[in-house]
Amino acid sequence: MADRNTTEVSEAQIAAHWKEEEYYYPSAKFISQANLVDADIDKKFGLDNFPESFKGYADLLDWYKYWHTTLDSSNPPFWKWFAGGQLNVSHNCIDRHLDKNKGKAAIIFVPELEEEQPVAVTYQELYVRVNETAALLRDYAGLKKGDRVTIHMPMTPELPVTMLACARLGVIHSVVFGGFSGMACGDRIADSGSRVLITSDGYYRNGQIQNHKEKADIAVKRAKELGAQVDKVLVWRRHPGKYISSTPMVNGRDYFMDELLKDYRGKRVAPVPVAAEDPLFLMYTSGTTGKPKGIQHSTGGYLAYVAGTSKNILDIHPEDIYWCMADIGWITGHSYIVYGPLALGTTSVIYEGVPTYPDAGRPWRIAQQLDVNIFHTAPTSIRQLRKLGPEEPRKYDYHFKLMVTVGEPIEPDVWRWYYNEVGKKEAVIVDTWWQTENGGFLCSTKPALNPMKPGSAGPGVPGIHPVIYDENGDELPPGTQKAGNICIRNPWPGIMQTIWGDPDRFVATYYAKYCKNRQSKNWRDWPYFAGDGALYAADGYIRILGRVDDVINVAGHRLGTKELESACLTVPEVAEAAVVPVVDQIKGRIPEVYIALKPGVSLDHGEVQKKVVSAIEDIIGKIARPSHVWVAEDMPKTRSGKIMRRVLAAVSNNMDVGDVTTLANPDIVEHIKIMVQSRAKREASTGTPEDIKRFGQNE
Ligand code: WTA
Questions:
Q1: Is the CB of 409 under 6 A from ligand 1?
Q2: Across-strand partners of 175?
Q3: In the structure, what pLDDT confidence band is assigned to residue 556 with cuts at 50, 70 and 90?
Q4: Whose CA is closest to atom 25 on ligand 1?
Q5: Which residues in 475-522 belong to E strands, given as ranges?
Q6: What's the pLDDT tens digit per position in 35-45?
Q7: What is the model's pLDDT at position 11?
Q8: Atom 15 in ligand 1: which residue has the minimum CA distance?
Q9: Is 298 within 8 Å of 277 (Cβ atoms)?
Q10: Could you tell me the pTM of the whole model?
Q11: What is the Å distance from ligand 1's center to 436 Cα?
């Protein structure tokens, strides 16, 4: 059969399977109160008005010095937004709201244990806490503008307090998701060159205290192995004055924040004006090679973009109670728990724990108790809540005006449950497609202006001009029925600035593929390549199909295949490893591991499998735990010796492996198939051709 697995054929297959969904319309009630009701908005944000179209977003902020150039595009693709401008994020998210709203809740913290009551932190209290923390970071930890600091913390108010204290000083924060392992944290400390690690002793998850501090010791050790010295580890305590970790504090290195802060009571720190293009933070994300990329975001462009999109797409008004269930350790949490909502002066809810603790009614009780009216989550949580409590939302009296889904494609059926049950047919849904690299939303419907279509993210948001290219760089216009690679034609203020310390990788990863002329100084020649497959419907709505690179999206979290494989290879008995995504009803995808052992290994297979699982958990974190580790005699390989992940992915997902006769060792495929498919009570799997396609790339 001719090349049945080339990108083109697989994508066409996806297209053929896609059924058009019907539209859902926003209610008159929603429209009557919406921020964005200007029917000419797309025209105003048209490419004819670019880049001045984004001026309105920057005007949502306070500037110490107004910018002179909206977009300096003289050195593509290193865009400089609002060049010449100066501002401070902490001032914009806190100080400027005090005049009118000092007594209003900025943050409402909901502890996981239901017997602990929610705690509101007013804008005034946030101001005091951020000032005192900033004074400590400056005077005790010696941090100043441009320094990097790694923050590895769970979902407590101290996390945004710490981020905002850094921003007040112009210190660049690098928040590492609390669920990541100490090793993963150590890698990121070393890459960012942080001398200070800010962490916490522990937190509650599924009703259990998690020992978080132990990860700090591993992180510091790992960073040291990589040549980076951490001088201070600052430890927030979940219950001030009471240490809930069993890991000892290291003398002369580790300090309790609540104790140090006693010396900074009442201290105020003037916000440090920074240039619009000074970095605000780094956020590490997985890419196609083993090493995570430090995505560097700007201050002015980023804050303007998250404020503008929070207003237009999330429809945040200052009087709303807004709850995003994401973790602040991911980009969604940075942009749409902390920076966007607080820049607009609204109330942002922070929930410590898992959505289903102690039962699947928890989120709806929280919504009812706090009278949340905007709700933001990911398909993986929606699927879980539907599975465990399909009728739970009905039991509670809350009313959402708007709900968000983000992080992975949502199945139309799951979308309808979200709409009918969670949203009670009242709430508008925005399916927002974007990435760590983008700062804020790229595609979504405009909630009061466009109808919703289950499973489709919608058109580009105002000012974002998507284009879908095939492998040859030809455009696939709306209605083509053929999928391709989604790109964005134009720069926008929230776009990343570079990869920390690796500008060449930045250009290679995001621009090289479709830039026709690397010498060009015209931004039109530099479309941004997102790395997602997508399909443009005739109505201009975009359906995202998933990653086209070696990234597995597990429950909305990006894991690099190569990172996982490298972790497997740290087990001495393992000779080769291949990781593939398996379709999972709740999490979307889960990694499944295949290993081949070194000759002469006498260890029991069960033991090796356990070692592989714990290597993955230690090096990356529990979120990466594989569904299964298969020990194979050999890996299916091409004649040039490349492991055929595509074949393994097909086996794992109970799909046709296609023609394998050209492999160097076709017989091995049959062996692996018998081993895998005889697995007792394997959940019925519905892999998509896209899983196979995405692993067909390098072969
Ligand atoms: C996927 C999360 C479909 C996509 C904000 C992207 C989505 C990756 C959606 C980025 C969506 C995100 N529909 N797929 N609404 N949102 N994705 O960097 O594959 O953690 O490339 O950013 O998630 O994940 P990241």
A1: yes
A2: 151
A3: confident
A4: 435
A5: 484-488, 498-499
A6: 999 999 999 99
A7: 40
A8: 433
A9: yes
A10: 0.91
A11: 8
